[in-house]
Amino acid sequence: MPKSKRNRPVTLSKTKKKGREHKETVVNSIRDAAEKFDSVYVFTFENMRNLKFKEFRDRLKSSSRFFLGSNKVMQVALGKTAADEIKSGLHKISKVLHGDSGLCFTSLPKEEVIRLFGEYEDYDFARTGSTAAETVELKEGPLDQFTHEMEPFLRKQGMPVRLNKGVVELVSDYTVCEEGKHLSPESARILRLLGIKMATFKLHLICRWSPEDFEVYREGLEDSDIESS
């Protein structure tokens, strides 16, 4: 007997947009962190990988707290000007929260924070639209790393391949990607199949605030620029 459509389970929960209540929670959390920790850093990142960032964050969870998200919300929490900043000098931090930025509140010594951020990096496969770090060329001939079942898929990626006695073979030289050019979806897939990792997840410190001082780490960004911006 066919199942009744009336008995089908229905999911009532829906994904809600982050509204005012969420923003207020973030603002309060940032302000609490500003009271709890000794200093705050602004950092940027290249080739963000959520799992890798979580690993880094977990290493520092006993002494630090990280915030990623809306720069505007973080600016409101810290204060955009000297008149509304929650601590003296914190509006300078807001001035450099642009693009892919985050906050790190910590009680670790400055030297250790600089070392940890500077040392941490991880390699991963590049995604579509990323810039190729090198030129990858495949020469005409057999591609022993691929099984015969892969031949139709490789052909769909634009590779000039054929089966020759059950072996995948390139019928002519093929350039997967060129250094400095953006990766197409096909190029990104082929690089993954070849096991070539071109993306490096890295974190860069921009500046540091503490009750005693304010330091700029990014080349070309001066304290006077922040004051006048």
UniProtKB/TrEMBL annotation:
Domain Large ribosomal subunit protein uL10-like insertion intervals: 126-196
Compartments it resides in: Cytoplasm; Nucleus, Nucleolus
Region (Disordered), start-end ranges: 1-23
Pfam family for this entry, one: RL10P_insert
Keyword hit for Cytoplasm: yes
InterPro entries reported for this sequence: Mrt4, Ribosomal_uL10, Ribosomal_uL10-like_insert, Ribosomal_uL10-like_insert_sf, Ribosomal_uL10-like_sf, Ribosome_Assembly_uL10
Basic residues: compositionally biased ranges: 1-20
Superkingdom classification of source: Eukaryota
Keywords, ordered alphabetically: Cytoplasm, Nucleus, Ribosome biogenesis
Gene Ontology annotations of biological process type: nuclear-transcribed mRNA catabolic process; ribosomal large subunit assembly; ribosomal large subunit biogenesis; rRNA processing
Nucleus is among the record's keywords: yes
GO cellular component terms listed in the entry, alphabetical order: cytoplasm; nucleolus; preribosome, large subunit precursor
Subunit structure: Associates with the pre-60S ribosomal particle.
Described function: Component of the ribosome assembly machinery. Nuclear paralog of the ribosomal protein P0, it binds pre-60S subunits at an early stage of assembly in the nucleolus, and is replaced by P0 in cytoplasmic pre-60S subunits and mature 80S ribosomes.
Protein family membership: Belongs to the universal ribosomal protein uL10 family.
Designated name of the protein: Ribosome assembly factor mrt4
Organism the protein comes from: Erythranthe guttata (Yellow monkey flower)
